Amino acid sequence: MLEVSPSRLRVVLDRSDSRSHHESLLRFGDLREGRIVVRAAPSYHSSEDIARAILEGLGKDLERRADGLGASTQLWRRAIVWLAAERIREILVIRAQWLRERDVVRLSGIAAQVDADLTLVVAGSALQAWQEELFAAWGFERLTFASWKRRHRARLAEQAPDRALTAGVFPEVPEHDFTLFRATCRELLSQSGFACVDRAWRLGRDSTHAFAASHCELTQDAIAEHLRTILRDAGSLSEVVCRLRGAQVAFFHSGWLVRVSDERLAVVSECEPYDLVSEGTAGLLRSFVSARFGAAAALALITRREPGALVQMEVGDVTPDGRVVCVEGEQYEVPPAFAPLLIAARLLRRAAGSQEDEPLFVSQRKSDSEETGVRMTAYGMRRTLRTVMRETGLLVPGASSTKRDSTSLRWQMHRGISARHYARKTRQAPAG
Predict the structure, then answer these.
(1) Are residues 31 and 87 both part of a single domain?
(2) More confident residue, 20 or 198
(3) Cβ(259)–Cβ(223) under 8 Å?
(4) Residue 167, domain member (yes or no)
(5) Does one domain contain both 361 and 414?
C-alpha cells in the first residue's frame, strides 16, 4: 500500500459543512503561496474528474477548446506537471467524503510525488470505516474545522486580489461600434472595470481632438500616423479597441469616418513595442492547460524573437528553475511570474522521454493532442501564438506573418482600419 508520512496527511472533520465554512476553505487557496483548493463532488465518477478538479484549482480554464484536454492519462500528466511547475506545497480537498478509495490513494500519491501536504476536508462527525482503516495505515493528523481555522487564521484573513483587475490585465470589452461602445461598457462592466476602460477611451478621444485641432487639413497619412502613435503602448487588444473607439468619436466630429475591422485587428500582433511582461499577463498565460501555449507566448514576449528562432529551442535551453532561457545562443532572464510556464513545458518534454538536446516545441496530433516528437515548424509556432492572442486578447509578437510595416498607412491597412472624409470640418465665424 502507498505510504504517506503522518506529517503530510491531514483530515479535517467539518460537522456543519455550512456556507461560511465553505467560503473560508475557498479563501485558503493562493497560487502565489503554493496552496490550491480542489473541490470534490458526488458527480465524480472517474479519475478524470479529479484531474480536472486539480487543474481548476490551479486556475486553468477548462472551457478553452484550443487546449484539447485529451485522454485521462494526459489529463493526469498535465495535472502533475503543473503542480510541480507552480511549486504547490499544500493541496486542500473540500468535501472529500465524495472521493472513492482509489481516488484518495491517487491523490496521496500525487501529493507525495510533488512533495506537497494533503488536507482532506470531510463533512460529518466521523470517518467511514474504509477511511479510518486507510488513513490509520498511513498515519494522519485529525483536526476539527475550528482547530484547522485557528491554525490558518492569518492566511484566511488575506483576501486574494480580483483576477480581472490584476496589474497588466485590461478588462474585456464588448464588440460594439463607436456610437454605442462607451455606454455599453458602462452598463456591462463593474465600476472599477469601467473606470479602467474609460481612461483608455478618453485618451484616444482627447488626443485625437488635440491632433485634429492642430491640423488645418487632415490627410490619410497624418491620420494613420496619429493612430499608430496612440496605440503604440497599448498592452492588450481590449485596450487597443478602447483607444480606437475614442479616436473614432473625435474623428467623426472632425468630418472623418474611421472604420475598424475587429476581426482583422484581432489577428494582427505586430504593433509597436508594448509592455506585456507583467504578472497579469503571466496569470492569463498560466490559465492554459496545455503548456505549449503559455510557454510559446511567454518566450515571444520576453525575447521578441521570431517564431523560426523559437522552434529551434531545445529542452536544455530552459534551465530547470525556468528563470533563464537561451535562444540561438543568446540568454534571457525570465521574470518569476513567467517561470512556471517554462518549467511546465520543460517537464512535459522530459516526461515524454525527451533528452536535453531534443526539441522543446513539437507538433501534436489533432485526434488526441498527443505529441509526435517532430519539431514544430515556424508556421505551427505562428498558429500557436495566434491562438493565444485570440483566446486572451493579448498582442503577442510573432502571431502575424506580415513583415513590420514600413509606413503608417500600410500599418493602418494591415489592421483593417480605414478613414474616409465624409464632410468638411466647419468652423463658426467669429461673432460680431
Answers:
(1) yes
(2) 198
(3) no
(4) no
(5) no
Q: Which domain holds residue 301?
A: 279-392
- Going by their DSSP bridges, the two strands 9-14 and 141-144 should be labelled as parallel
What is the phi/psi pair of residue 209, to 5°? -60, -45
For the purposes of burial, counting CB atoms within 10 Å of the CB of 100, is it exposed (0-12), middle (13-18) or buried (19 or more)? Answer: middle
| Same domain assignment for residues 210 and 264 | yes
Distance CA 207, CA 246 (A): 9
> Does any domain span residue 1?
no
Give how many domains the chain has, as a whole number: 3
What letter would DSSP give residue 63? Answer: T
Same domain, 118 and 252: no
Reference 411, options 221, 177, 208, 207; nearest CA is 221
Q: Is 21 left (phi over 0), alpha (psi -120 to 50) or beta?
A: alpha
In tens, the pLDDT along 174-185 reads: 888 899 999 999
Residue with cell 477511511: 131
Tell me if 57 sits within 8 A of 110, measured CB to CB: no
Among 160, 192, 225, the domain-final residue is 160
User: Are 206 and 155 within one domain?
Assistant: no
How far is the C-alpha of 68 from the C-alpha of 74, rounded, in Å?
A: 10
CATH of the domain at 50: 3.40.50
Around Cβ 233, how many Cβ atoms within 10 Å? 13
For residues 270 and 229, give the distance between their C-alpha atoms in angstroms, rounded to a whole number: 14
Confirm if 116 and 90 have CB atoms less than 8 A apart: yes
Alpha helices, H only, 1-68: 19-27, 47-57
| 173 lies in some domain | no
12 secondary structure, DSSP code: E
Q: What CA–CA distance (Å, rounded) separates 268 from 86?
A: 31
The string of pLDDT tens digits covering residues 125-151 is: 788 899 889 888 888 889 999 999 898
Residue 67 and residue 16 share a domain: yes
Domain co-membership, 97 together with 154: yes
Q: Tell me the percentage of the chain whose pLDDT exceeds 70.
A: 82
- Provide the terminal-to-terminal Cα distance of the chain, rounded to the nearest Å: 99
Select from 172, 110, 148 the least CA-distant residue to 21.
148
Average pLDDT value for residue range 251-260: 91
- How far, in Å, CA of 301 to CA of 385, rounded? 10
Indicate whether 207 and 283 sit together in one domain: no
